[in-house]
Each structure stands twice: as structure tokens, then as C-alpha cells.
Design brief:
It is built from 9 helices and 4 strands. By secondary structure, it is α+β, with helices and mostly antiparallel strands.
Length: 217
Amino acid sequence: MTITITAFERSPDGGKGLARDTRVRWALEEVGQRYEVRLVSFRAMREPAHRALHPFGQIPTYEEGSLTLFETGAIVFHIADRYAGLLPDNANARARAITWMFAALNTVEPPILERETARLLERDKTWYEKRLPLVDDRVRDRLGQLSSRLGNADWLDGAFSAGDLMMVSVLLRLRSSGILDEYPNLAAYVARGEARPAYKRAFDAQLAVFTGKRPTG
């Protein structure tokens, strides 16, 4: 069955790989599954046809036969669970990898998204200059905890897994902030994720949408 995902027709991240369809593309590239992409405009995202796939009118969505999914965590977990390559065979290691997926989305990402929201939407508020350092401190708290846990390891729990895919995807949102560079082992961890051939293919495919050029290689 053909796998079809949706993505922004014109990504607001400017092709930097931060749109959430990149996470799904990366997962599919890691497990070696071909997929098609249906590009969706902001206007179309509000229309009933797309709302039937994603009730909150966002991207990405995932369609495979009669199955339709939304939310990147659920989609990446489905891919990892269905196809070999992103979850360990050992039951305990598998459970730990899934735990790291949840940690990335539920514990590490929220303060990072709060920081993005503050910078994008609250700059004109009288309390912005006082609020941003507080938000940055919350981000640093999480990064410090994650940095301590990762230590000198290449990946969070043995071999690369869906947990690492989600965590690297979340941390990439800090790339331009300079905060990630305060934690050299996390910066190196993200660089290892970006160096994976599957990530490069996913990034190039998402960038091609923005530039209008087909990815090479």
C-alpha cells in the first residue's frame, strides 16, 4: 500500500527542516519505506477535506490504505512499530526507546516551543524582556538534565532509535538560539543525527518543496 503524508505547500520554516513533516520523512527514510507527499496550503488546511484527516487542521498526516493518522509522535511510533530499524528487538530496550520518544515531546519540547512563541508573538509586550530569560532558564534546566543523562554516549540508550530521532528533531529547534552550544555533548548529539543519511534525504526532500528543486543524490 502506498504511504502518503501531507506537508506545507509553503513551509514557514523556509526549508530549514523544522516543519514536523521532516520527522515523519526521516522515520520513513530510516526504515526504507517509499512515500508520497501531498502538499497542502494554509487555506486548504482549514477546509473540511483536510480536517477529516487532521481535526486540528495541521500537518503532517499519514495515510496508508484505510489507516489515517495525525500527530508526529503517533505517526513515528506507528512507523517504528511496523517496520524494522527504529525500535530494538529486546522488549525492555524497546520500551526505553518509546519512553525517550515521549520524553522528547512531553518534557523537552514544551519549554522550547514556549520560547519560540515568546520570541515570535510577544516581542511587543511590556513584559517580554523580563519573561524571555525565565523561559530560557526553563529550556536550560531541561538541557542540563538531558546532557547529564547522555554523557559521552552517542545515543540515548544504546543504538540509534526512534527516541533519538524525536529528541534530535526537538533539539534542532534550538539551532539558531545559541543555547544548544552551551552543552557540547548535546550539540554533538544533534550533529550525529543530522549526519545520518536518512536525515539528509528527509531534509533535502523538505528543502526541495521550499526551493522548487528536486533533491539530488
